[in-house]
Amino acid sequence: MSIPRQLQLPENNSFFLFGARGTGKTTLLKKVPFLSDALYINLLDADTEEQYSLRPRLLIEQAEAMKEGDWIIIDEIQKTPKLLDHVHIIIEEKKICFALTGSSSRKLRRGGANLLAGRAFSFSLYPFTSQELGDIFNLNEALQWGSLPKITSYTSDIDKRRFLRTYTQTYLKEEILIEQLIRNLTPFRLFLPIAAQMNTQIINYSNIARDTGVDHKTVQNYYQILVDTNLGYFLEPYNRSVRKVQRLSPKFYLFDTGVKRALEKKLNVPLEPRTTEYGDAFESWFICECFRLNHYNELDYSFYYLRTKDDVEVDLIIDRPGNKQLLIEIKSTDRVDERHVKNLHHFKNDFPDSELICVSRVNRPQIINGITVLPWREALEYIGFISHHSR
User: Fold this and answer.
1) Distance CA 181, CA 183 (A)
2) Which of 118, 171, 251, 367 could connect to 235 by a Cys-Cys bridge, CB 3.0–4.6 Å?
3) What backbone phi and psi angles, to 5 degrees, belong to 109?
4) Structural fold of domain 287-390
């Protein structure tokens, strides 16, 4: 079954399309009508990668036989970054457009690759959103197994477990070892399950360094590798002063709940509602959904969390240009009462011009002490990610 993607790609301008392995970059490009006749170069194929590495000028020679406005797709451009110099020339001289995919921008930047100085737009592709899956979306399935495109094709839990285990192993092999992002893989192997366990929590670099046997700067580098290979996001602490003293370290969210559970080796453990694990998974999924939809809709929203030194927290603060700031509490319960919105009340006077909402699994909206409680789907619409007509 073909599932349409929300990302809208430009028909008349070159672009980079980044995204973790398995998010469907190649599949998307092969389905886009304006790329149907494009020259397709797959650098994941060893023979093709060797051919262009040894003789990158081949690309210019192929472009000579093309006309203005034609397209060339280069899959996994980070495999041969020096091709970008030739891409630059072809865009300038031949007015040919390029669709360049990559699972990592890190190798491109580290090697000083030519990133085309703005001549190519930059996009990212993520696991399926709830809106993309539409009627077949199941929240509990998304929390348990994630929403990578391949996972939606499996019907048995055994196959889903096997896929996610293989995915995490492939990531280590193909992204880290082959791309030589780090020299010593052993502490990084120790780091990954710890990062999964600390998902949604404030990062304590020193504690993780102690557990993995490296210094805290190396741990910071490990997290940056996850960001650069599109496997996660930092959620920064709120950066404006309020009268309460604030925590200053970021949180980290892995990009997919299924991958998180695979790294944590909890795929055999059922994810049950009304448990801490379920609550963490719901928070992680909702915040990742916000990151994805913000990018796809090109909204330029900024995301933060806020926690005081006495551990009173707002899960998510969204700055929305041209709209009111939102303070959001995320609760996985399907029955919300005063207890669940008390943190929002704690900050009400500090943010008099902001809107306060609680996102949950309730069936219908309600208002508790002036705070709006919304079902998660209606919350996404309320925030501005989903129009009423596209539901």
Assistant:
1) 7
2) 251
3) -70, -40
4) Trna Endonuclease; Chain: A, domain 1 (3.40.1350)
If 0-12 CB within 10 Å is exposed, 13-18 middle and 19+ buried, where does residue 255 land? Answer: buried
330 forms bridges with which residues in the sheet?
359
Question: pLDDT of 276-293, one tens digit each?
Answer: 999 999 999 999 999 999
Cα separation, 379 vs 368, in Å, equals 16
Query: Mean of the pLDDT values across residues 112-131?
Result: 83
Distance CA 324, CA 317 (A): 11
Quick one: pLDDT band at residue 300, thresholds 50, 70, 90?
A: very high
| Superfamily for the 15-124 domain | P-loop containing nucleotide triphosphate hydrolases (3.40.50.300)
DSSP bridge partners of 42:
75
Q: Above 70 in pLDDT, residue 99?
A: yes
Report yes or no: 374 and 382 within 8 Å, Cβ to Cβ: yes
Query: What is the pTM (predicted TM-score) of this model?
Result: 0.92
SS3 at position 361: coil
Task: Express each pLDDT in 47-98 by its tens digit.
Answer: 999 999 999 999 999 999 999 999 999 999 988 888 998 999 999 999 999 9
The answer to whether 219 and 250 have CB atoms below 8 angstroms apart is no
